[in-house]
Design goal:
The protein is mostly helical. About 85% of the residues lie in helices and about 0% in strands.
Length: about 150
């Protein structure tokens, strides 16, 4: 699963599927397959702007998808949001997939990784807030000490 989350698309593949997507777009209709292939390349980009573009395409595909088709769209939506550290959104997508397919091993594994990342992210956030609190308390103590020393000199 880690390989799926960290896979980076080759620039030439991204360009190839972008050309195919734009070619169909100019003709008036992009096939579901082409849109998915391009979105799949975009979410594997090292650039967050590309990943966000891929998310938009996957969301469009998900809205019009059958239950079978939505599996891949929801899975890769979760992957894309995970890569952007949007863990709540990733969890929402993967849990929607799991409602339709409760035994999907790949989705269950991804759900565990998202949960783990959410918890880690929450602990880091709490540590930062705690550190700020300690810093403010320390600063207040120093100011109080300086004020009391100043008052004792007069």
């Amino acid at each position: 699963m880690e390989a799926v989350l960290s896979d980076i698309v080759a620039p030439e593949d991204l360009m190839k599927f972008e050309r195919k997507y734009n070619s169909e777009l100019v003709k008036g209709a992009v096939s579901k397959e082409t849109k998915f292939e391009y979105a799949w390349c975009l979410i594997r980009s090292k650039y967050s702007a590309d990943i966000k573009k891929g998310i938009v395409l996957l969301e469009e595909l998900t809205q019009k998808a059958s239950k079978d088709d939505s599996r891949d769209f929801l899975f890769y939506l979760a992957v894309a949001n995970y890569r952007l550290k949007e863990y709540e959104k990733a969890l929402k997508s993967i849990r929607t997939l799991l409602r339709n397919e409760p035994g999907n091993k790949q989705a269950l594994e991804l759900e565990k990784l998202i949960d783990k990342a959410l918890k880690k992210d929450g602990l880091v956030g709490m540590a930062i807030v705690g550190g700020i609190g300690l810093g403010v308390a320390g600063l207040a103590g120093l100011i109080g000490l300086a004020v009391s020393k100043g008052a004792s000199k007069s």
